[in-house]
TrEMBL record:
This is Acetate kinase. ATP binds at K14, H208, I209, G210, N211, G212, D283, M284, R285, G331, V332, G333, E334, N335. It comes from Paenibacillus solisilvae. The keyword Glycosyltransferase does not apply. Keywords: ATP-binding, Cytoplasm, Kinase, Magnesium, Metal-binding, Nucleotide-binding, Transferase. It catalyses: acetate + ATP = acetyl phosphate + ADP. The gene is ackA. Belongs to the acetokinase family.
Length: 401
């Protein structure tokens, strides 16, 4: 079975074509600058040279047409005809309370995703454009939607409710949803496989640390808490996002600096985090490089970032009455030796003991980085959200026939 996985943003569209017989990637690529002049399509077919095309791609519909042309192209293609594609899986950021699992796209599903636009105004509309574009270009192919929020729908009320008037939850569904669910789901299964233990017997804290960052407390394979909330702003300090802060800061800063709602939103989402404290970058590589050169603000940014992460790990161990496994994933979590070291070195009281040599390994495979005696096993697991989307799509489409 061949499955196309799509991740549509407002001006971009990433894709991967999987052969589910062996879960190999036949081709991957991305279209950038959709709707702008000089759109760029990068196509990387397996075993063939990469293709880079610069042209005008005004909408997602045209983007899907171009990428499907390339997938079947005599020289750059990897399949003979679009009929070989059995299903398309889409990443959708917000599934609200309606979607606790991935689902096959129907009219009702599309209407519900549309109703959820107000909860994710930047993310859900482009995902819908991707779904419509596939419908137009591949009309008979079943589509599946996989939600970033779905994995966290198992959270109990005590962790997902805010302590504000219940009417806000009842009327407007203001609550914590959590994000990066596909990643937390994928890495927790991978970690259990690596340890050779059933997921259903483990208490895990998974740390997805990329530009955006979140932790999840996973007990018996189910998310019981996660650090992001109604939006991906809550929780850990991130590249450009503040993470947790006293909500009273918002009206206070607004009145002192005469900020509008949009301005304060932009300040907290785009001009905070590592960027704000270091004063020069949101990129962890640049922060750690500058730290080595003695930059005090970079050091402060790094210390705040790791301190907050450590507090969350401790809180989640308390939430689950213990932990067996700690997982690091995503750009920073998979690659930053110093971050993992800084986070873990003050968690020895919880039975976390990193092996410095294993921590420094450059392997791109799932690996254990704690010592043999460490009570809590620490792992680095490369995330692969696209593969999980492909697997869910495969499973749902097989069940439907
Ligand atoms: P996104 O949240 O956009 O998917 P990624 O998971 O790709 O982000 O993570 C991107 C971040 O990973 C970059 O901002 C960079 O700070 C960090 N990163 C990548 N490689 C390294 C590295 N070798 N050391 C430290 N940080 C790294």
């Amino acid at each position: 079975m061949i499955i196309l996985v799509m991740n549509a943003g407002s001006s971009s569209l990433k894709y991967q074509l999987y052969n589910m017989l062996d879960e190999s990637v036949l081709a991957q690529g991305r279209v950038e600058r959709i709707g702008m002049d000089a759109s760029i399509l990068t196509h990387e077919p397996e075993g063939k040279p990469d293709v880079r095309q610069v042209s005008e791609i005004l909408d997602h519909n045209t983007a899907v047409k171009r990428l499907t042309d390339l997938l079947t192209h005599s020289e750059h293609g990897v399949i003979r005809s679009m009929k070989e594609i059995d299903a398309v899986g889409h990443r959708v950021v917000h599934g609200g309370e309606s979607f606790k699992h991935s689902v096959i796209v129907t009219l009702e599903v599309k209407l519900e995703i549309r109703r959820l636009f107000e909860l994710a105004p930047l993310h859900n509309p482009p995902a819908m454009m991707g779904i419509m574009a596939v419908e137009a270009n591949l009309p008979d192919v079943p589509q599946v939607v996989v939600f970033d929020t779905a994995f966290h729908q198992s959270m109990p009320q005590e962790s997902y409710l805010y302590a504000i008037p219940m009417v806000l939850y009842r009327k407007h569904k203001i609550r914590r949803y959590g994000f990066h669910g596909t990643s937390h789901d994928y890495v927790s299964s991978q970690a259990a496989n690596k340890l050779g233990e059933p997921l259903a017997s483990l208490k895990m804290v998974t740390c997805h640390i990329g530009n955006g960052a979140s932790c999840a407390a996973i007990r018996n394979g189910e998310s019981v808490d996660t650090s992001m909330g109604l939006t991906p702003l809550e929780g850990l300090m991130m590249g450009t996002r503040s993470g947790d802060l006293d909500p009273a800061v918002v009206p206070f800063a607004m009145s002192k600096e005469e900020l509008t709602i949009n301005e304060v939103n932009s300040m907290l989402n785009k001009h905070s985090g590592l960027q704000a404290i270091s004063g020069f970058s949101s990129d962890m590589r640049e922060i750690t490089d500058a730290m080595k050169d003695g930059d005090k603000q970079a050091k402060l940014a790094f210390d705040m970032y790791t301190y907050r992460l450590r507090k969350y790990i401790g809180a989640y161990a308390a939430a689950m009455n213990g932990m067996d496994v700690l997982v690091f994933t995503a750009g920073v979590g998979e690659n930053s030796v110093v971050l993992r070291q800084a986070v873990c070195e003050n968690l020895t009281f919880m039975g976390i003991e990193l092996d410095p040599e294993l921590n420094e390994s450059k392997s791109k495979e799932t690996r254990i980085i704690s010592t043999a005696q460490s009570r809590v096993k620490v792992l680095v697991v490369p995330t692969n959200e696209e593969l999980l989307i492909a697997r869910d799509t495969y499973k749902l489409v097989l069940e439907a026939v």
